Amino acid sequence: MQQMAFSQTLGAGDYFTLAIVKLTALVIAAASGFRGGRIFPAVFIGAALGLMLHAHVETVPAAITVSCAILGLVLVVTRDGWLSLFMATVVVPDTNLLPLLCIVMLPAWLLLAGKPLLAANRHEP
User: Record keywords: tRNA processing included (predicted)?
Assistant: First the structure.
């Protein structure tokens, strides 16, 4: 990921395309009944979106954009604040970001509290 953050060959549009392709693959896999997890694909999508945001607004450090994007996407997929915070902290190992991530997580978690999980409904024939 560090090589992608400092790469000058990929722009914001390339990272956006990468995130859309990964999101499409996740939705197709979930809709077709793939029994795999959704956490790590959400982390990869979050990393691509975070790098896109950093490429779009270069004054914001990549560590902040990537960790916040991962935190948000894992929170949307799992509805688990602790897991989201852990994943964002592990991917970007900067303990100085922990207070910022806690502040960012609170309103997002409050918006998602009580909402149903990301799941595909199956209709019996």
Answer: no
pLDDT at 28: 85
Rounded Cα gap, residues 23 and 16, in angstroms: 10
* pLDDT tens, position by position, 88-100: 999 888 888 889 8
Residue type, 65: T
Helix residue spans in the chain (DSSP H)? 2-5, 12-31, 39-56, 62-78, 81-91, 98-112
pLDDT (mean) for 15-29: 88
Q: Are the C-beta atoms of residues 22 and 44 closer than 8 Å to each other?
A: yes
Amino acid 121: pLDDT: 63
Q: What is the pTM of this model?
A: 0.80
Residue 117's closest CA among 82, 90, 86, 79? 79
Residue 73 near residue 43 (C-beta atoms within 8 A)? yes
Q: How does DSSP assign 68-86, residue by residue?
A: HHHHHHHHHHH--HHHHHH
